[in-house]
Design goal:
Strand order of the largest sheet: 8-7-6-11-10-9
Largest sheet: 6 strands, antiparallel
Helix content: 55-70%
Strand content: 15-25%
Number of strands: 23
Shape: elongated
Radius of gyration: 77 Å
Distance between the termini: 182 Å
Structural class: alpha+beta
Length: 919
């Protein structure tokens, strides 16, 4: 068994091994004790069950102590365990025979174990405990010599404790040494760890450096530019791109002098650059130089370099970029830009010129800067037929235009093309197209404007130097601008021509319209047609039934004029024009089968014909024709112009005829008007005479009637009624005669000439006019009243005429008002005028008659109108008198609700009445 505290050890593994041995020793001791119990189980002094209980208790205690020791490593637990070991041995021996039992012998290893582990004092304490146990056992066993065993145990404890104390001192010293060694070991371990870490970092840095070097090498090899590292002016490294530029391998370039790689003319420049590159932190500008390749062809490169520290040596890293193609492209771009600038200049130049000749001159001058040539032509398609006009210019000299058929040179209008060779394989019509049979090379580019083909631009060389595709590409934009300019020039020329034609037509039209006699119009038409159409011979034929008559001609021979006199509709070219009513253009009359007098045409040399019908409505008055003695093709525009001229001439001729008819009719009408005026004058004179003749006997009759009514012998009542009716009828007839006389005076302006204007009071005038009619109103049972304001209503007018106006209106109201009715004469002052109104409660006037009741002799139909009678001149007389006073009259009426006749007269200015009264 083991007892006492454990010794401190140098090594943890040794300590754990000692703990294991201790536990094993206790287990062996327990096993030996149990084995002894088994041998002594049946001994005389053995009490097996108490001994077995001691063994079980000790086993349980040992397990609990071990658990407690693991939780708490205090020394007390170990001391208790050592004491328990001794007591367990003593108890076991006591229950198995005392000193006769071999179990107590386990106290020797126990005392040795605790003395070696705990030191001298601890060993003596445990030795005394063991000695006491042996002494007790000796006393129980009746073996007095057993006490010697107690002394032996004490001696063992002393010897073991002494050895243990010495060993503990040695252990403490070894512990200090161990601590020092541990510190040294820790320091050494830290040093070794630091060295290992540094070594790992060095290895990692070396790996990174190697990786970086590999990447840089790959980068230098993969870069598209050449890379060269120079040391002392020689190649220390070159990537494959740089080697490929020179035509060498990278290894073959190592050690090569830099100047040996450069063309002689660039060495000085590159050497100066290298000296700058060697300066630290200097990154110079790019230097362009030509490399000498192994193939002998110089290679233009752009060099950019800088100084670096490499492997302890000052080095220069230079990049080489092949700029041969770049410079070539720059030159091409510059050349293209120059061509575009030239094309732009051509476009600006041709757009500033407004005629085909000026455009052609500019194109010939400017195109020579882009594409060299010896001959330049413009082939322009005719707008009127399959003809081609060729305008040519050579080396400093122009040529007059020529006309070609389109079909032989159709190839020039299809697409841009070039030809160079001999005459055998030349395109058809080439010599005519170029206006020069000596051309050996040709380039043609079609001219298109707004998707419309208008011609071609053609360049020629007298030497067999072919035009390239680049030349054609340059000429295409030139052709586009030229086509647009030519089209604009044509449009402008057409506009100018149309303007001139329009101005001529307008001028001629004014001249023709200004004349109303055919003898003046017809010669003017023929002269104007020749001037506008640019011809010398003109003929105007008029239709008379089916015959054609020469109405006017210009510069035609008498024989030709006589030949035209016998033409009929449908005969020859002129008759065809009238028959069909359409213009006709003939380039060569001699070849036309419709021509009747071919001999005359050939004798006098006439060639071309243009005729237009003189159309008026659905008919045709004649023809207007021009003929030329030179070949001329009259196009659609000229035909339209001729037709417009013919239409104007037809209008003028028709107007002249109408004017002649109108003049004849006007003369007849003038004679008829003169007769009517004479008849009217006679009628008015007869009416005045008759009126005066009627008035004279009527006045006598009226006087005798008054005499009879006032005679001393009073007539009977019947006679009085007869005399009254006769008097009223006589008054009515006298009034009608007076009205007719007044109307006659107004129509002959006699009243206006004898007008006596004065200032009148409208109220007084109305009272004086109404007073004679009151008796008639009372007799008919009609109330007659006046409604005027307190203020004076002054008006300027003729008293007698205005008196008739009031009387006629009131008399008219009395005629159409029933018994029990009411008539009101009303006067009002309004802004700038006076209003006189006569309102009745009569039968009214239908709306359809109100606009005409003031017309002379107009009478509204109806039974009432027939009963009251009247000649229809009373209201007419009112209107004319009011108009004579610068006034107006109107009516407001509804059937069955009466009528209101309103007269409006202007008010005189404030100062006018006094002046007029004095006058």
């Amino acid at each position: 068994m083991q007892s006492g505290p454990p010794l401190e050890v140098l090594d943890v593994s040794l300590y754990r091994r000692g703990q294991l041995i201790t536990a094993l020793a206790r287990s062996i001791s327990l096993g030996l004790g149990l084995l002894s119990l088994a041998f002594l189980w049946n001994g005389p002094r053995t009490r097996p069950y108490p001994a077995l209980a001691v063994a079980a208790a000790y086993l349980f205690f040992s397990l609990a102590s071990e658990v407690a020791r693991r939780r708490s490593r205090r020394r007390t637990g170990k001391v208790v365990h050592d004491v328990a070991d001794a007591l367990a041995v003593g108890a076991g021996a006591a229950f198995t025979g005392g000193l006769d039992s071999p179990i107590w012998l386990l106290l020797y290893p126990h005392v040795v174990a605790v003395s070696l582990r705990g030191g001298l004092s601890y060993a003596m304490a445990m030795g005394v405990l063991d000695a006491v146990i042996v002494s007790v056992l000796a006393a129980l066993s009746d073996q007095p010599l057993g006490s010697l065993h107690a002394v032996a145990l004490l001696f063992c404890a002393f010897m073991g404790g002494t050895a243990s104390s010495y060993l503990q001192q040695v252990q403490r010293r070894l512990s200090r040494v161990n601590e020092e060694v541990s510190v040294a070991n820790r320091q050494l371990s830290e040093t070794v760890s630091a060295q290992a870490s540094a070594r790992r970092e060095q290895e990692q840095a070396l790996g990174r450096l190697q990786d970086s070097e590999a990447r840089y090498r790959k980068l230098l090899e993969a870069i598209q530019d050449g890379v060269v590292i120079l040391q002392d002016g020689r190649v220390a490294y070159a990537n494959r791109v740089a080697a490929a530029m020179i035509g060498e391998t990278p290894a073959g370039l190592l050690g090569t002098d830099l100047l040996d790689l450069v063309a002689p003319e660039d060495r000085r420049k590159l050497l100066e650059g290298y000296r700058r590159w060697e300066q630290p932190a200097d990154l110079s500008a790019t230097v362009d130089a030509r490399l000498q390749t192994r193939l002998g062809e110089p290679l233009l490169v752009s060099v950019r370099a800088g100084s670096v520290e490499l492997e302890g040596r000052r080095s220069v890293i230079a990049t080489l970029r092949d700029i041969t193609r770049e410079r070539r492209m720059e030159r091409q771009v510059q050349a293209h830009a120059e061509r575009l600038a030239a094309v732009n200049e051509i476009a600006n130049a041709v757009n500033l010129n407004l005629t085909i000749e000026d455009i052609f001159a500019v194109v010939a001058e400017e195109t020579r800067r882009l594409v060299p040539f010896d001959r330049l032509t413009l082939a322009l398609l005719s707008e009127e037929g399959p003809a081609v006009q060729v305008i040519a210019i050579g080396a400093g000299a122009g040529r007059p235009p020529v006309f070609l058929a389109r079909e032989p040179v159709e190839w020039a209008f299809r697409h841009p093309q070039a030809w160079c060779g001999d005459e055998q394989d030349a395109p058809p019509g080439l010599a005519d197209l170029m206006a020069d049979p000596s051309v050996a090379a040709v380039a043609t580019v079609p001219l298109h404007s707004k998707d419309r083909l208008i011609g071609s631009l053609n360049l020629g060389r007298q030497r067999p130097v072919a035009f390239s595709g680049l030349d054609l590409a340059v000429l295409e934009p030139v052709a586009r601008h030229v086509a647009i300019a030519l089209d604009n020039a044509r449009l402008l020329e057409a506009m100018r021509r149309r303007r001139r034609e329009f101005e001529s037509l307008l001028e001629v039209g004014r001249s023709i319209v200004a004349r109303l006699e055919l003898k003046d119009i017809l010669p003017l038409v023929t002269r104007s047609v020749n001037r506008v159409m640019g011809t010398r011979h003109c003929l105007l034929l008029l239709r008379s039934g089916d015959d054609l008559v020469v109405a006017a001609q210009e510069a035609l021979e008498p024989e030709v004029v006589d030949a035209f006199q016998g033409l009929r509709v449908g005969d020859s070219l002129s008759g065809w024009v009238i028959q069909h009513g359409q213009p006709l253009s003939v380039a060569d009359m001699r070849a036309d089968g419709r021509l009747m007098f071919k001999e005359l045409v050939e004798r006098f040399g006439y060639r071309s014909f243009l005729g237009a019908p003189l159309r008026r409505g659905a008919g045709c008055l004649g023809t207007l024709e021009v003929v030329t003695k030179d070949a001329r093709r009259f196009g659609p525009e000229e035909q339209a112009l001729m037709l417009a001229f013919a239409d104007q001439a037809a209008v003028a001729i028709d107007n002249a005829r109408l004017f002649a008819e109108a003049r004849s009719n006007l003369a007849q009408m003038a004679e008829a008007n003169r007769r009517l005026e004479e008849a009217g004058r006679l009628r008015q004179q007869y009416l005045r005479n008759v009126s005066h003749e009627f008035r004279t006997p009527l006045t006598v009759i009226k006087g005798y009637l008054e005499f009879l009514r006032e005679a001393p012998s009073v007539p009977t009542a019947t006679q009085q009624d007869i005399l009254r009716v006769m008097g009223e009828s006589c008054d009515r007839v006298i009034e009608m005669v007076d009205t007719l006389i007044d109307v006659s005076r107004l129509e002959q302006d006699a009243a206006a000439r004898s007008l006596q204007m004065q200032t009148l009071d409208l109220r007084q005038l109305s009272e004086a006019s109404v007073e004679p009619l009151r008796a008639l109103a009372e007799s008919k049972g009609i109330a007659l009243g006046l409604d005027f304001p307190e203020e004076d209503l002054l008006v300027q007018g003729d008293r007698g005429l205005l008196h008739q106006v009031v009387r006629k209106l009131v008399d008219n109201a009395l005629k159409y008002s029933p018994a029990g009715g009411r008539i009101v004469v009303r006067g009002r002052a309004r802004e700038g005028e006076l209003a006189l109104e006569v309102e009745d409660s009569g039968i009214g006037i239908p709306p359809e008659h109100q606009a005409r009741i003031f017309e002379k002799f107009y009478v509204v139909d109806g039974g009432m109108t027939r009963r009251v009678g009247g000649a229809g001149v009373g209201l007419y007389l009112v209107r004319e008198i009011v108009r004579l006073h610068n006034g107006s009259v109107e009516v407001r009426s509804r059937p069955g609700q009466g009528s209101v006749f309103a007269v409006r007269l202007p008010r005189p200015p404030p100062a006018a009445p006094a002046t007029l009264a004095r006058a």
